[in-house]
Write a structure and sequence with these properties.
The structure holds two protein chains of two kinds. Chain A contains four helices and ten strands. In chain A, about 15% of the residues lie in helices and about 50% in strands. By secondary structure, chain B is α+β, with helices and mostly antiparallel strands. In chain B, the strands form seven sheets. A six-stranded mixed sheet of chain B has the order 10-14-15-13-12-11. Chain B has a six-stranded mixed sheet with strand order 27-19-20-30-29-28. Chain B has a six-stranded mixed sheet with strand order 21-25-26-24-23-22, covered by helices on one side. In chain B, about 30% of the residues are buried. The chains are: A mainly beta, B alpha+beta. Chains A and B meet through strand 4, strand 5 and strand 7 of A and helix 8, helix 19 and strand 17 of B.
C-alpha cells in the first residue's frame, strides 16, 4: 500500500487520497462545462496546456452540485488522463502505516462506493478515497 | 533504403536493449513462457525486416533461431541449457551484425553456420559467443569453413564476404567483431530518437508560451506602449509561432512514411514467392502521430506480408480461378471521424473461416461444441489466436501463426482495432482503426448556449444561414427539416442534443456529411472561425457521452470540445442510412421548384471572362481536354473526343491554355461542346431574361445572386454547331463560276460553312441554287435562281448595283443565309 496520504476535506468530511497519484493542488476557476456529461463531471480546465477533467465530488456523492467560482482541486493522474478532484480544503500529507481496515459502521451510499477502507491517523479514522471509482462516478449504479 | 536501414538498426538495438533483461531471465528459467514469447517475437521481427532489407545473413540466423523457438513454443523441444545458450549466441550475433551495419564494418560470417548448427537438437554445447580459437581443431574447422566461404564468396562475387574472410584467416585470434575498433570512421547520424514524453513536454511548454504571449499582448495594448516595444514583441510572437509550428510537426508525420517501404517489400516478397502483385497505395498524405506510425509499422508489415504469402495465389492458380494474373494489393489510409483507417485489401483467396475452425479444433484451441456456435465473424477472429496459421506450409515469409496475434496486440495497445472481412476465393480486407490522438485537424468553431465547440472540417459539407433564399425551414411530423436548394435535410438542434438553453436564435445551419452519404444540418447559434486544432482524447467519462471526439485547447486557454459528428446524429436520432428518403424528396422538391419556374442553371466563366449561364439540363457533362485535341477543320473548331469529332463552339475568345474545359451538350440527338474557362456554381434560377437585341450566342441577361449573368442561347448554339450540316443532298448548291485560287481557297470555305454544297462547273448537271460570280464577268449564267456578284473593291464604284465587296463578310453571310432560307422554305 501507499504509505503517504493527502488529507482533504470533501463535503465536510475529512478523507485521504493516496499521495502517489496526486500531482498537485491548484486553485481553479472558469471551468468549461461539458454538456450532457454525467452530473459529477463539472467541466474541463486547462492546466499548463493540459486539459483536465474536473470531478465534482459533491455531485458524485449525490449531495447536489458545487457552486461556481474559484475552488480548490487536487490534480490526479489516472490511466493516462488528468483529473481535478474538487475539494473543500487540503490539509496535509501524512504517513500512515498499515492496511486500510473495513469501516465497521454502515456508510452512506456515496461514500461506500468511493472508499477503499479506513485508516487511522492520530486517533482519527479517515476514509481512503478510491480515486478511480470517484471519477467513474455513480453512473454504474444506474447501469 | 538508407532510411529504412537506419530505422531497422535503431529499432533492433532498442528491442535488444529492452530484451537483454529478458534474455538473462530466460536463461535462469527456460520454461518461462512469456519471456520465450518476447524473444520469439524479436527474432521473428528481425527475420521479417531482413527479408525485405536484403540482409541474408541476419535473416538466416534469425530464421534458424525462430525455428527452434517455434519448436519450443509448440512443446516439441525442451529448452535445455544448450539450446538457451545457442539462442543467446545467435541473438548476440544479431546485435553485432546490427552494429556493423551502422558502422559499415564487415564481420566474419564463418561461424554463423556453427551458431546455427548449435541450435539443432543434440548439438554439442554451443560455442561461446566469442569463440576461443585456441585448439587446433577449432582453427582447422575455422579454416575449412573460411575456405568454404571463399568459395561461396567467389561464386556470388560478394565483396563483403571476401574482405571478411581474408581477415578471418589471417588473424583468427582477433575474431571479436563487436569490440574490435571500427575500421571506418563512424558516420555521424543526422537523426536522433527522442522519447515522446519529452516532445509532449516541449509541446506543452510552447503552448504555455503562446498563452503567455497572448496575455502580454493584452497588457501591452492596455498600457499603450511605444512602437519599439511593439516591434520587439512582434518578433517574439513570430518566433513563438514558428517554434510552435515546428514542434507540432515533430509529432506529426504523413502516413507516407509508413508506406514508402511497401513497394520494395512487396516486390521482394512477391519475387521470392513467384507471384505477381500490383500494389496500389492511397492516402499517403493523411497525417498521423509519429508514435502511432511507429506502432503501426510492424503490424502493417505483417499484414502485407501475409496478404502476399497467403492471400494472393500463384499466377497459374489465379488464371484457373478466372482472376487477372497480377494480384491486386491495395493499401490505403484515410481519416474517418476521430479515427484513422488503414486498409489492406487483396484479391487473393481470402480466409476460409470454416477451415480455420477445423485447424483451431485440431490444435486444441477450440472445442468442437463451441465451434458450432460461432458466427462467421467470430470464426474469422480465430486468426488472431496465437499459434494458428492458415498457411499450408511454413515459409520464410510467414505462416507460423505469429503475426496476427502480435498485430492485434500492437494495434490494441494504442487503442486501435483490427477488423477482418473475408470473402473466400475473392479476397481479404484487413482494417486497422487507430485513434486520432494528438492529430491536428482543421476545424470549424461554432457556439451553442454561449459555449464554443469544434467540428472537424472534413465532415462539413456547407454552411448556410437560415433565412437565405435557397433555404426553407419546415416541420414534418414534429421533426425539423430544411430544404436546401431542393434537397430535404433533417435538422438537428445542437442545443437540444447538448441539453443546454438557447442564448440566442440558432441562425446558422452547418450541413454535415455522415459516412454512407447521409447528411444532416446542425443548427447552431453562431459560426466563428476556421482553426487548426490539436485534438487529444478526452477522459473516458467525457468520451462516454458519445457526442465528443476529444478536447482541444485554443489560444484563449479555455478547453473546447470537438463534436463527434456521427455521435451527435445518433443521439439526435437521425438515421444514418436514410439516403433513400432524401432522394425521393429531391423529386418532390423539383416539383416545388418547377412551380416557381426555377430550373437548375450552370454558371460558368466563359473564355472571355464574362459570367454566363446555361440550363443544366442541356449539359451532359463537363470535361477537361487538351487543346491539342481541338482542330479547326472544314471551317470551324472541332474537338476530338474518343476518336469522334464533335463540333466545338466558343464565345470567340482564343483558346490559349494547354488544357480546356468544355461543356458537352446534347439536344437529344446531336452533340456539341462549348469551351469555357471555369465552372462557378449550379443554382436554381427562375429564368426571366432581358432579351438580347441581336441574335447571337447570348439570348439575354439577368441578375443571379446580384451578379449580371449572360445566358447562352441554346438554340443558337445548336443551330451554330449543327444546323449547318444537314446531309449533303439536302444542302443548297452554290455554283462558284470562277476557279481561281481565291475562289477555291478563300471564298469556298465561307460558302461551305454557311451550309452550301459547292460545285465549280455547270456541267455537273446539278442545278445551282445560288451562283456566285466575280463582278464584271461577262458570261451571264442562264437558268440559275439567284446570282451574287462579288466585286474587287470596297467602294461601289464601277460595279453592278447589287454587287458585294468580296470581303464584306457580313453582307456576304447575310446574302448566303437569305438564299439558304429561301431555298429551305
Amino acid at each position: 500500500m501507499n504509505d503517504l496520504y493527502l488529507i482533504v476535506e470533501i463535503a465536510g468530511q475529512r478523507a485521504l487520497l493516496p499521495a502517489a497519484c496526486v500531482e498537485s493542488v491548484v486553485e481553479i476557476e472558469d471551468i468549461a462545462p461539458v454538456p450532457s456529461a454525467p452530473p459529477h463531471v463539472f467541466g474541463l480546465f486547462a492546466l499548463r496546456s493540459r486539459v483536465l477533467t474536473v470531478i465534482d465530488t459533491i455531485a458524485a456523492l449525490g449531495a447536489g452540485r458545487s457552486c461556481d467560482g474559484e475552488k480548490q482541486a487536487v490534480i490526479v493522474h489516472v490511466d493516462g488522463h488528468l483529473y481535478g478532484i474538487l475539494v473543500d480544503d487540503v490539509d496535509d500529507v501524512v504517513q500512515i502505516d498499515g492496511v486500510p481496515a473495513h469501516p465497521r459502521a454502515p456508510l452512506s451510499a456515496g461514500w461506500a462506493r468511493y472508499s477503499n477502507g479506513v485508516l487511522e491517523h492520530d486517533g482519527e479514522p479517515m476514509l481512503l478515497i478510491d480515486v478511480a471509482a470517484m471519477i467513474a462516478g455513480p453512473i454504474d449504479i444506474a447501469a | 533504403m538508407d532510411d529504412l536501414l537506419g530505422d531497422f538498426v535503431a529499432e533492433t538495438r532498442e528491442t535488444l536493449e529492452a530484451l537483454s533483461g529478458e534474455i538473462v531471465a530466460w536463461e535462469l528459467a527456460p520454461d518461462d513462457r512469456s519471456r520465450l514469447d518476447a524473444i520469439f517475437r524479436f527474432v521473428h521481427t528481425v527475420k521479417g525486416s531482413c527479408g525485405f532489407l536484403d540482409l541474408p545473413r541476419l535473416e538466416k540466423l534469425s530464421h534458424a533461431a525462430e525455428d527452434v523457438l517455434a519448436d519450443v513454443r509448440a512443446d516439441r523441444r525442451r529448452p535445455d541449457s544448450g539450446l538457451v545458450s545457442a539462442v543467446l549466441a545467435v541473438i548476440d550475433r544479431i546485435a553485432e551484425l546490427t552494429d556493423a551495419i551502422e558502422d559499415g564494418r564487415f564481420i566474419a560470417d564463418a561461424d554463423d553456420a556453427r551458431l546455427i548448427q548449435a541450435l539443432q537438437p543434440g548439438a554439442a554445447p554451443a560455442p561461446a559467443i566469442i569463440p576461443t580459437p585456441s585448439t587446433l581443431e577449432d582453427d582447422v574447422a575455422a579454416l575449412a569453413q573460411a575456405l568454404d566461404a571463399i568459395q561461396a564468396a567467389n561464386d556470388s562475387a560478394d565483396d563483403e564476404n571476401e574482405v571478411v574472410v581474408v581477415a578471418d584467416v589471417a588473424a583468427p585470434q582477433v575474431d571479436r567483431p563487436v569490440t574490435s575498433a571500427p575500421a571506418t570512421p563512424r558516420v555521424v547520424s543526422r537523426t536522433i530518437r527522442l522519447p515522446v514524453d519529452l516532445l509532449d513536454r516541449m509541446m506543452a511548454g510552447v503552448s504555455d508560451m503562446v498563452l503567455a504571449r497572448n496575455e502580454l499582448a493584452r497588457r501591452l495594448r492596455e498600457s499603450g506602449t511605444e512602437s519599439n516595444t511593439e516591434v520587439a514583441f512582434e518578433r517574439l510572437s513570430q518566433c513563438i509561432a514558428e517554434m510552435r509550428d515546428s514542434i507540432t510537426r515533430t509529432r506529426m508525420a504523413r502516413v507516407e512514411h509508413l508506406f514508402t517501404a511497401l513497394p520494395r517489400m512487396v516486390r521482394d516478397i512477391s519475387a521470392e514467392l513467384g507471384k505477381i502483385v500490383q500494389l496500389e497505395i492511397d492516402g499517403g498524405d493523411v497525417e498521423l502521430d509519429r508514435e502511432m506510425i511507429e506502432m503501426i509499422r510492424d503490424p502493417l508489415t505483417h499484414i502485407v506480408r501475409n496478404a502476399i504469402d497467403h492471400g494472393i495465389e500463384l499466377p497459374e492458380l489465379r488464371v484457373l480461378a478466372g482472376k487477372p494474373v497480377a494480384g491486386r494489393l491495395h493499401v490505403s489510409a484515410r481519416q474517418v471521424g476521430n479515427q484513422i483507417l488503414i486498409e489492406v485489401i487483396d484479391d487473393g483467396r481470402g480466409i476460409d473461416a470454416d477451415q480455420l475452425v477445423q485447424k483451431a479444433i485440431a490444435s486444441g484451441i477450440l472445442g468442437q461444441e463451441r465451434a458450432a456456435t460461432l458466427s462467421w465473424e467470430r470464426k474469422l477472429d480465430l486468426i488472431f489466436e496465437p499459434g494458428l496459421s492458415t498457411a499450408q506450409q511454413v515459409t520464410a515469409i510467414s505462416g507460423r501463426g505469429v503475426g496476427m496475434d502480435v498485430v492485434r496486440a500492437n494495434v490494441e495497445r494504442i487503442g486501435g482495432l483490427v477488423d477482418v472481412e473475408s470473402r473466400p476465393g475473392q479476397g481479404l480486407r484487413l482494417t486497422l482503426r487507430v485513434p486520432l490522438t494528438l492529430t491536428i485537424i482543421p476545424a470549424l468553431t461554432i457556439s451553442a448556449g454561449g459555449q464554443h465547440f469544434a467540428i472537424p472540417r472534413s465532415a462539413i459539407d456547407e454552411i448556410v444561414r437560415i433565412g437565405g433564399d435557397a433555404v426553407r425551414m419546415a416541420t414534418l411530423g414534429g421533426a425539423d427539416i430544411v430544404f436546401i436548394r431542393g434537397t430535404r435535410v433533417p435538422v438537428v438542434s445542437l442545443n437540444k442534443v447538448l441539453g443546454i438553453s438557447e442564448r440566442s436564435a440558432q441562425a446558422n445551419l452547418v450541413v454535415l456529411k455522415l459516412s454512407g452519404g447521409a447528411r444532416y444540418a446542425l443548427a447552431v447559434e453562431a459560426v466563428h472561425d476556421h482553426e487548426e486544432l490539436v485534438v487529444k482524447p478526452a477522459a473516458p467519462i467525457v468520451m462516454a457521452c458519445g457526442i465528443y471526439g476529444g478536447t482541444t485547447l485554443p489560444d484563449n486557454s479555455r478547453p473546447m470540445l470537438l463534436l463527434d459528428v456521427a455521435g451527435v446524429a445518433e443521439k439526435a436520432g437521425v438515421r444514418h442510412d436514410d439516403k433513400g428518403a432524401t432522394e425521393t424528396v429531391v423529386e418532390d422538391n423539383d416539383v416545388d421548384q418547377h412551380e416557381k419556374g426555377a430550373v437548375p442553371v450552370l454558371l460558368f466563366r466563359d473564355l472571355d471572362g464574362i459570367e454566363r449561364g446555361v440550363p443544366l439540363a442541356l449539359v451532359e457533362r463537363i470535361e477537361d481536354c487538351f487543346s491539342t485535341s481541338v482542330s479547326t477543320t472544314a471551317g470551324r473548331m472541332r474537338l476530338n473526343i474518343d476518336g469522334r469529332l464533335v463540333p466545338l463552339v466558343s464565345c470567340g475568345a482564343p483558346i490559349i491554355e494547354p488544357k480546356i474545359r468544355v461543356l458537352r451538350m446534347r439536344d437529344g440527338g446531336e452533340e456539341l461542346a462549348y469551351a469555357i474557362d471555369i465552372v462557378i456554381d449550379i443554382v436554381p434560377v427562375a429564368i426571366e431574361l432581358q432579351r438580347s437585341t441581336v441574335p447571337g450566342p447570348v439570348s439575354g441577361v439577368m441578375l443571379v445572386e446580384d451578379r449580371p449573368v449572360e445566358f447562352i442561347d441554346a438554340f443558337w448554339l445548336f443551330a451554330q454547331g449543327l444546323g449547318i450540316e444537314p446531309a449533303s443532298a439536302q444542302r443548297p448548291v452554290c455554283l462558284l463560276s470562277d476557279e481561281d485560287p481565291w475562289t477555291r481557297q478563300v471564298l469556298a470555305p465561307l460558302v461551305e460553312s454557311a451550309g452550301y454544297k459547292i460545285i465549280y462547273s455547270q456541267d455537273s448537271g446539278v442545278a445551282a441554287d445560288l451562283v456566285i460570280i466575280a463582278d464584271g464577268t461577262a458570261s451571264e449564267p442562264t437558268e440559275a435562281g439567284a446570282v451574287l456578284r462579288l466585286r474587287q473593291n470596297a467602294e461601289e464604284r464601277g460595279g453592278s448595283p447589287n454587287s458585294l465587296w468580296r470581303y464584306d463578310r457580313i453582307g456576304l453571310t447575310a446574302e448566303l443565309r437569305r438564299h439558304w432560307n429561301k431555298r429551305s422554305a
